[in-house]
Write a structure and sequence with these properties.
This protein is an alpha/beta fold. The chain folds into two domains: 220 residues, 3-Layer(aba) Sandwich (D-Maltodextrin-Binding Protein, domain 2), CATH 3.40.190; 188 residues, D-Maltodextrin-Binding Protein, domain 2 (3-Layer(aba) Sandwich). Helices cover 38% and strands 17% of the residues. Helix 2 links the parallel strand 1 and strand 2. Helix 1 crosses helix 11 and helix 9 packs across helix 17.
Length: 448
């Protein structure tokens, strides 16, 4: 069984949606016309300067305000950078002002789904909400030079995250939500294999901490075994079906790997508790390694100092077959609300294009630690020297972009992982494991 790089599962129930379905506030032709204007007045060079890419606006005596939503920690930086940028836009600065307000990605989606017209003109959101926002008519697709910049300037995972049924609906902003391996170099000298990490931790009286009581983490094994599990949604955001093949030889292979790991509970492996990063504390800490994300970077690095290590997830082996651990990849995106005014629509796309540009992504990395999706930003010395982002970047090549999942998915996978950790399947035969996988798969497919 070989490891394959995964692509973002598509929510097939939305396969008939195109821009014409993107809301009552703007017909598809409006967006198409604006995109064509931008394309007709520029070259398609990937590094094109979008400050000159869009056509000049129609003269107007009164300035219009463009509203932008950004997470609270990013508001001041975003406002400052947009003010500086707008000051250099000779064709646009006398027609528009930009106001940035605090709105987290989750809340932004909720607000846009409640009332698109009252929502911000440009807003950030998480990639697992793309299908719902498309269904609500809350997104205007980038076109022309804006589309070129999205596809040419960002990594493949983030481009996949803004894509639904072959169409791109938003702009990648980050490529930094996923998990990888932190490890103590004084404990783990070789982080390449799961069994090796467990054995090295056990030899030092430490543990590898990983959360398998979660559908976000157990896919490291299922997707690593080339299994699939994703949900289809209709245009109202309701589940219409689930694609899942866990009750298969591939699923059995993945479950055996988890069961084998659980056999070392307390002797080289432990279920991740809350605040796991603190377990690297040299004053009695019990972690030799931890599967986690960039949110724990500063804490783990502070505790370990020169012994700090970060790497992609290890490989796992069952019955002589080796696979690379996989996982979910997460991305922050920026969307543009449809507009009836073609000038305003073009300007909103200019704003979104700049918010997700190399310049802005580097500014957010330097001030907030956000991992860039922009390829040039990723190659910068500053980003390359961040061990956590470097490890995550390597791991994301093996990951699946997270789609939308109902709450029942998380509840069912938590119960499944809890049973494994309890030792319920420690001595189970293949038939018993397959029966458990069939129960899980049937339950997941019935989830709404």
């Amino acid at each position: 069984m070989k490891t394959a790089k995964k692509t973002l599962p598509i929510m097939l129930a939305l396969s008939m949606l195109a821009l014409a379905g993107c809301g009552n506030s703007t017909p598809a032709a409006t967006t198409t016309a604006a995109a064509k204007q931008a394309a007709d007045t520029t070259t398609a060079a990937a590094a094109a300067d979008t400050t000159t890419a869009a056509p000049a606006p129609t003269a107007s005596a009164d300035k219009q305000t463009i509203t932008v939503w950004a997470p609270d920690l990013a508001v001041d930086l975003t406002q400052k950078k947009l003010d500086e940028w707008l000051g250099g836009q000779a064709d646009w600065k006398d027609k528009y002002t930009i106001t940035v307000s605090a709105m987290g990605e989750g809340d932004a989606t909720t607000q846009m789904l409640t009332d698109v017209e009252a929502g911000a003109d440009v807003f950030g959101f998480a990639q697992d909400q793309l299908a719902r926002l498309v269904a609500a008519g809350a997104l205007s697709k980038p076109g022309g030079i804006f589309l070129t910049n999205v596809t040419n300037n960002n990594d493949a995972g983030s481009v996949g995250a803004v894509t639904l049924n072959g169409d791109i609906y938003a702009y990648p902003e980050t490529s930094d939500n996923g998990y990888f391996l932190y490890y103590d170099k004084s404990v783990v000298s070789d982080p390449s294999t799961l069994q090796g990490v467990i054995d090295q931790c056990a030899a030092a009286g430490k543990n590898l901490y990983m959360d398998i009581q979660s559908g976000w983490y157990d896919v490291a094994f299922f997707f690593g075994a080339d299994c699939e599990c994703y949900y289809n949604y209709d245009t109202e955001g309701q589940v219409t079906g689930c694609v899942c093949d866990y009750s298969s030889d591939k699923g059995l292979y993945a479950m055996k790997a988890m069961v084998n790991m659980a056999k070392y509970k307390g002797n080289g492996y432990e279920q991740t508790p809350d605040g796991a990063a603190a377990l690297f504390n040299p004053e009695g800490g019990t972690a030799g390694a931890l599967v986690s994300g960039t949110w724990d970077y500063a804490t783990v690095k502070d505790f370990l100092g020169d012994n700090f290590g970060a790497a992609k997830l290890p490989t796992f082996e069952v019955d002589g077959t080796v696979s690379q651990m996989s996982g979910f990849g997460g991305f922050k995106l920026v969307g543009v609300k449809p507009q009836t005014d073609s000038d305003k629509l073009t300007f909103c796309h200019l704003v979104a294009d700049y918010i997700t540009s190399e310049d802005m992504q580097m500014a957010r990395f330097n001030e907030l630690g956000w991992g860039p999706s922009n390829l040039n930003a990723q190659k910068s010395d500053a980003v390359q020297s961040n061990e956590a982002l470097a490890a995550l970047g390597e791991q994301l090549a093996f990951c699946v972009g997270q789609g939308q999942y109902p709450q029942a998915y998380w509840d069912l996978t938590q119960a499944f992982g809890t049973d494994i950790n309890s030792g319920k399947y420690a001595d189970a035969d293949d038939a018993t494991l397959l029966a458990a996988l069939k129960d899980l798969e049937d339950s997941l497919k019935a989830a709404k």
